[in-house]
Amino acid sequence: MSFILKKNKTDRIIDTVLYTSLVIFGFATLFPLYYVAVMSVTPIAEVLRNGGFVLWPQHVTFDAYYYIFKSNRIPDALKITIMVTTLGTFCNLLITSLLAYPLSKKYLPGRNAVLVSIVFTMLFSGGLIPLYLVVSATGLLNSIWALIIPGLVSSFNMLIMKSYFENLPAEVEEAAKVDGCSDLQVLGRIVLPLSMPIVATLGLFYGVNHWNAYFGGIMYVTDPSLMPIQVVLRNMIVTPSVSQELGLNVQDLQVLPPETIKMATVVVATLPILIIYPFLQKYFVKGMLLGSIKG
C-alpha cells in the first residue's frame, strides 16, 4: 500500500520561497558568465550603439578570439597554465596520498605529533616575505616549479584524504600484505583504486586552484614567457593598452574595443574548467562525505 503525502498550505509556501530563491541565485550566478560570453562575440558597432551593454547580439563575430590567438601571448600562457595544472595536480595528489596513508595508521610512531604540526600550519604561517625568501633561496624564481612546490600539500585536503583512508576496510590491506605486498604496493594497487572518489574530488580542488592561481605568477615570475593565463588576464585588465600586452599592432585592434578582447580572454581562461567540472562532479558528494573529518 502506497501513501501520498499531501502538502498543506504552509509547505507549498515554503517550497515556493525555496524554488524562487534558487532561481534568483542561479540567475545571479549564470548571468555574469552569459554576459561575458555575449560581449566577447558582439561587433563593436553594436556595442557602441547600445551603450556598451548587450544582452542578445543581432550579429556575431569571432574577431576577438582571432586576435587573441593571433598573438603568441595567450597561447603561450595557456600552455604554461595547462602544464602547471597537470604537473602540479599530479604532484599534489602524489605527495598528499604519501603523507595521508601512513598518518591514517594509528600504530605509526609519532603520528599525533606530526598531525599536531600539520594542523598548526593551518592556523599559523611564516608570512609572505619569508615565503618569498625561501622560494628565492631555493632557486625556484622564474620557473614553473615556483608555481607548484610552495603549495605542494594542502593540510586540509591531506586530513580529508587521511580520514577517507581510515574508513577503508583493514582486512583488504591485511590480505594484500599476506600475499607479499609492501606498503607502497598496498597504497598503489589497493588503497588508491578504492579511493577514486576522494582522489577525483581533491584532484579537482587542486586543479582549479592551479588554474585560477595568479598571485604566485606575480610574485615569483618576471619572465613573460612563463606567466600563466590568469596573470596575463590580470595584466590586460590593469594595463592601459591591450595591444601592448598582447604584442599586436594598435591597428589590428581598431575594429574591436578593449573590453571585447578582455571578455574573450576570460572565456578562454574559464572554458576548460567548465568543461572538466561536470565529469568529476559525481564524485563530490561521495568523496566529501566519506572523507569528512571525524570529530
Keywords:
single chain, 295 residues, mainly alpha, MetI-like fold, globular
Protein described:
- Keywords: Cell membrane, Membrane, Transmembrane, Transmembrane helix, Transport.
- InterPro entries: MetI-like, MetI-like_sf.
- Belongs to the binding-protein-dependent transport system permease family.
- It holds the Pfam family BPD_transp_1.
- It is found in: Cell membrane.
- With 295 residues, the chain is an all-alpha fold.
- The chain has a domain at 73-223 and 283-290: Orthogonal Bundle (MetI-like fold), CATH 1.10.3720.10.
- The protein has 15 helices and no strands.
- It has helices spanning 9-40, 44-49, 63-70, 73-103, 111-123, 128-137, 155-166, 170-178, 183-194, 196-212, 215-220, 229-238, 242-246, 258-280, 282-290.
- The longest helix has 32 residues, at 9-40.
- It starts with 8 loop residues before the first helix and ends in a 5-residue tail after the last helix.
Quaternary state reads single chain
What share of the residues lie within helices? 55-70%
Name the helix and strand elements from N-terminus to C-terminus, one letter apiece.
HHHHHHHHHHHHHHH
CATH architecture of the domain at 73-223 and 283-290: Orthogonal Bundle
Number of strands: 0
Note the main sheet: none
Percent of sequence in beta strands: under 5%
Alpha carbon gyration radius:
25 Å
| Tertiary shape | globular
CATH class of the domain at 73-223 and 283-290: Mainly Alpha
Q: Which fold does the CATH topology of the domain at 73-223 and 283-290 refer to?
A: MetI-like fold
Average pLDDT across residues? 81
Query: Termini separation (Å)?
Result: 41 Å
In DSSP terms (H or I, runs of 4 or more residues), the helix count works out at: 15
Give the CATH H-level superfamily of the domain at 73-223 and 283-290. MetI-like
Structural class: mainly alpha
